[in-house]
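Bench notes, afternoon.
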Amino acid sequence: MKDVTVAMVALGGYGNSYLARLFGNGEHGGFRLVAGIDPKPKGCRYLDAFKELEIPIYPDLDQFYAESSVDLVVIAAPISLHLPFTRTALAHGSNVLCEKPVTATIQDALQMAAAEAAAEGFVGIGYQWSFADAIQALKADVMAGVLGKPLRFRTKVLWPRPQSYYHRNNWAAKLKTADGCWVLDSPVNNATAHYLHNCFYVLGETRETSARPIDVQAELYRANNIENYDTAAVRCHTEDGVEILFYTAHPVNENIGPVFTYEFENAVVEYRAYDAPIVAHFKDGRVKDYGDPFANGDKKLWDAIEASRTRAGTRARRTGAPLACSISAAMSHTLAVNGAQESVDSIVDFPDDLVRRHDQNGDELLYVEGLVEMLGRCYDQGVMPSQLGDVPWAKIGRVVDLRDYRHYPSSEAPLQS
């Protein structure tokens, strides 16, 4: 059987995680890494392996395709480059596994979907929980109605990030790149994006789709001296009336989550700790263990390789089973991110007297006194910070209608709350 050929785009940063699997694939086989693409690959930890195996590194996709072709392109490039790189790969007949989020804006996501529809190849988006056996088992029960009607989904992810995090590249915490492309980098659109996406994905009507949010309202805050926000509370509603509440923050001194509580008519599904199982507690006393959603985090890569092997050509792509997380599935998260940015007139700075500084081995962490406790109460009560009644600096944004939202920023004024 012919090996699937793979090219890796962006060799530093998260690209190293893919390369660790591609070079140390263990029991997985049936593929060959044939090229790396990166104009400045100095951040790559596997340069010696590229050299030893005589795998060429090209400065860009155009130069690579001028000399070669490939079955699957894996893209771990900055958010603003997801669309152009995916479009180039599809135009040359390759399949694509692109890292999350799909793009920064809904209009770019729609362009990416149009490019896929016109091409022979497929595109998968790398939200690894969507590929996990635990999430697939949970989603199958949701689709089958085993848990009853979904009512409310709550998620909390509080991950400390020191100052070096905001200097890791030239687009961290920015609204746009230096050349004017939207990036909307934030905890909701980057580090914790997986877990807001998962709320929509689990509610999707099919394996490869997500429920669509029809509105969003946000509270966006920051402690760090950055352009965008480092803390968010987001409330969405889906077309079926499910309320989704998402709480995330980086200026905290405790590492918490992801944790979630998904409420249904017949059960409550909880994920209480990292590396723990997802468990459903039914009203009739039954308990179901779905497993650990982090157990097979590299499944997205192996699924993309296998799909590239079995679904070559337009006809096979149209009739074969798509990857678990499609462009369409990832768009719901992008809609929520875009709407959340438009919900507020400006990012609210935390009061100076609440911001603390902590040295982490020479790397300064800014954290907000009481933020962990406050967001914990929001999560427990299912409310926004401004609704607690004892947070005088909290400011809620307007409700943004997403039902016909196709461009960020929108040309029409958002709805007022």
